[in-house]
Amino acid sequence: MEGRRHIIQMIIGGMTQYLTAVQGMPKSIEKRLEKRISNFLWKERNHHPVSSSVTQAPISEGGRKILDIAARNEAIDIMALKTYLAFSPKWHQWCLFADALFALKVPQSEKKVDPEVRGNIFLQTWKTHLNKKQSPILKQITDTAKKFNLRIEGIAFSRKIIRDMPIWYHREGAQAIRTMNSTAASHCLKQKHKLRTVGETADMAARSQTEDHTPSSSCKCHDCESIRKDYNCNHPHGCIRQCVKLLETLPPKWNPSAELPEDYQIEPQHTELFNRKEKWTPFDNRITTDGTIADIFRIFTDPQTTTSNILPNLKPPPGELGLRHIIIATDGSCENNGEENARAGAGIFIEKSHPDNRSAKLPKYLAQSNQTGELVGAKLAADTTNPALSLGIETDSRYVLNALKNGQKFENEGFITTSNKSLIASVLTSFRTRTTPTYTKWVKGHDGNERNEGADKLAKEALSKDKASFVNLLQPPNLKVTGAKLTSMTQSLAYKAIMQMKTRKNGTKRKRTELNLMRIQNCVEDRFGYIPTKERFWESIRHKDFDRKTRDFLWMTCHDAYWTGTHWSRPNMPVDLQERAICSHCGVIDDLTHTLTTCEATGQEIIWSLAENLWKRKKSTLAWFKPTLGDILGCSLAKITNPKNGKPVTGENRLWRIIIAESAHLIWTTRCQRVITNEGRHPSKSELQNKWTKMMNDRLELDCRLTNLKLGTKAIPKKLVLRTWKGTLTNEEELPNDWTAKSGGLVGIAVEREEEGFG
């Protein structure tokens, strides 16, 4: 299946990419390609056991990342939208034609809008046709923007961007700005002054503040005289006054005359204490969006929230910064990481017995991991420290430092590929709201650093708390942005965002799959004492100890995707096919549980007996037990530990994975050969023994070959192979310490040469 995924990506995805980007893909072709992809993936079978919504889902959610051609096409449409809204000097000519066509085809209600000021429908409030009267290509642009919630959004914008915005029908202006477009003064400004932008309006309005100007139509000041001469304007003061009124309709966030964050927020600098030599890094808390008008658009925004036009007040306190400071160490801790019963905590430490030392147990609505604990520690430090103090944060977490360093990039990309997105966004807000400088520094963990050790201790103490702390993830509306910046979009990011939307909408849960996942969690808890998360299971069956056929087998089995058992007894099945639901030998439902663990015709009893003999020779602390279906699927999650120190026994865990998975797959293939190829003939005992022995010896031979250093990073460490097969080889006592260069076989398997069947 993995190979077919790559073929689909290369052939269908690659060969249709250019043409779709140039002229789009008709829906009829898209449907045919979707069907062809599905048929190819399932080898032209009539029945597809797992829906496309599941196979297209991410690996961590039980999918296979199969190409979704419809989502890929929508990602291409987003790239076209990005090109149209680029507003760059190298703007494509078709974008200019698009603006002209949008302005040409307007509904009757917009006929009064002066055609000369119809600039861009995404920057202004006038409307264009969104129905079939519009060109299909242009309609695709507006449909894409509407479907993926494109809108103007940002905390604050640079004065350059604000000045470049069109003043007429300004999208962020008050309702009054629309009625002001039809006055005589506005007509003069549009026709004679050719005034179009907010910047031009602000420059005109500023003339009212000159010393020699009088608020009269007969004003003889230098500016008014110049306006009469250059623009043939009979009432300069009226036009100036109209510009003042136009600017008054704009909120401070969009008014170039207002004080903006860029006026007082400067690039962070090192200080004498928090210097570069000591490897302190200043946090950049600037909130202003720079660039061009193209940078004001965000896509995949949250339709449930409204944008705020209130500027946050982040002016630093008066006086010289950096005179008072505090240094805090932060850390996180987690028990049972990657398990359902994981617990995480955070700690901040200033100095011994300091009243502001804190520890917090993470609430259940946050992911329980070491990384989230470290993020919460950083957030605690930013939220609880006196805002008048410069803050220095010491941490041993590269994860936190990376989140703070690249936070703006993550935010621009909508946190599409970032885990813990809500928490990171909240941490960034906590750091940005600090009006005094904040610095971060990496320190080596468990290296005798007093503050770091103190924070680590507090984080671990938090795990034993009875009550979890409240971690406020809510961001003030005027400091919150949703979605991703359109200019930061790539086709890959857009595709991933669309797939995330589809997964949230359609889900990937299947009753049969959920039942098997429950079995796996119960079995792993019974055998190894912990409950793995579902995400951890899906990642584990792709373990490098499994070849592709075994990975596919485990994936198909967990989804109950093989056409066995109750699949045949569906009401729409013909009566003669419904008989296949029953095992012809045992007379019970022939599902995978029966095939792999109880059927007398598949040879499973013999194969598990051989596996038992081999495992017992390993002399592991884990006593042999006949695996159930949950044990088979969960074999990759084995956690056999050394009773003395509690550390995992690498060799035993690896051998368990290999024995269980390979044996189960052999039982399945033997069953398929009996039912499909051999017309119900049962394999003999010696035949099964030979097959199993050869399979395990082939695996041993492969392991030995994979220790060759010529394979580079793909080579397996010799020590791992030696630990895996220790105690299982023929005449092992006579072999050298490093026997990986020699050929050898497994011992303890008595292969009988009888040919009679069984059962």
Explain the overall architecture.
- The protein is α/β, with parallel strands linked by helices and 759 residues long.
- It has four domains: 2-151, no CATH class; 174-249, no CATH class; 325-475, 2-Layer Sandwich (Nucleotidyltransferase, domain 5); 512-734, no CATH class.
- It has helices at residues 2-23, 27-41, 52-55, 69-84, 93-104, 136-147, 159-164, 176-179, 184-191, 198-206, 222-231, 236-248, 370-384, 398-405, 407-412, 421-432, 450-462, 491-506, 511-528, 534-540, 548-558, 575-578, 592-597, 604-618, 629-633, 650-677, 685-705, 718-725; strands at residues 151-152, 156-157, 281-282, 288-289, 297-299, 325-335, 343-349, 358-361, 390-395, 438-442, 484-485.
- A six-stranded mixed sheet has the order 3-10-9-6-7-8. It has a three-stranded antiparallel sheet with strand order 1-5-11, with no helix packed on it.
- A hairpin with an 8-residue loop joins strand 7 and strand 8.
- It is globular and about 115 Å long.
- Mean pLDDT is 91; it is low at 746-759.
